[in-house]
Design a protein that fits this description.
This protein is α+β, with helices and mostly antiparallel strands. The chain has one domain. It contains four helices and eight strands, in the order E-H-E-E-E-E-H-E-H-E-E-H. The protein has an eight-stranded antiparallel β-sheet, with helices on one face. The mean pLDDT is 92.
């Protein structure tokens, strides 16, 4: 399976209402300061859309959005361009980019993210249809990057929806609380030989 278009969403820790207007300026500042490896292009304001994309930072290879889908606010990183390496390498890279953006927002705005739940979406219905068979085929491939992400913490991996018309979206939940900083440290740690 040559999966390329990967999305990762990390949810905010506080469930209360959050004003997204300041993030328009923050994302514009990221463009001006060239704060990512990607070429950042523009910011789009979709705050008027209920349960929609919120505020979107559009990049050449990826988009970042403070996404409100299903009424759950989180940072959604949507990688659009081709990635090198194995699926596990691609997933680690998209998770790293997502978590770096989360940490940057925590420092710049005080918004807090929970590392206890990550949502993975495979944005290719042909290569990764939303079926139990696809999840079982991907499970061995996902094991290494998810174990790197969560370290020694136990986690669960489940499909969000059984509707085959939906994209394959997986919920990865740690059984114990974990921070974004810890997840980044886990990803950065060298893999130890077995």
């Amino acid at each position: 399976m040559d999966l390329q278009h990967l999305n990762v969403k990390v949810f905010v820790a506080s469930p209360g209402p959050i004003d997204l207007e300041p993030f328009i300026g923050i994302f514009n500042n990221w463009i001006q300061r060239h704060l990512t490896d990607d070429l950042l292009i523009d910011v789009a304001d979709y705050r008027h859309t209920v349960n929609g994309p919120g505020v979107v930072l559009i990049g050449h290879a990826a988009n970042y959005s403070l996404d409100q889908t299903d009424g759950r606010l989180g940072l959604l990183y949507s990688h659009k361009a081709a990635l090198m390496g194995s699926i596990a390498d691609r997933l680690c890279e998209t998770m790293r980019a997502t978590l770096l953006a989360c940490r940057r927002l925590e420092h710049e705005n005080g918004l807090k993210f929970s590392g206890s739940e990550v949502q993975l979406t495979f944005n290719d219905r042909l290569l990764a249809p939303n079926t139990p068979k696809t999840l079982e085929a991907l499970r061995p491939t996902l094991q290494e990057p998810l174990e790197r992400l969560y370290g020694q913490a136990a986690y669960t991996l489940n499909r969000i929806s059984g509707d085959p018309r939906e994209r394959l979206t997986l919920s990865v939940k740690s059984v114990t609380p974990i921070t974004v900083t810890t997840l980044l440290q886990n990803l950065a740690a060298e893999r130890m030989p077995a």
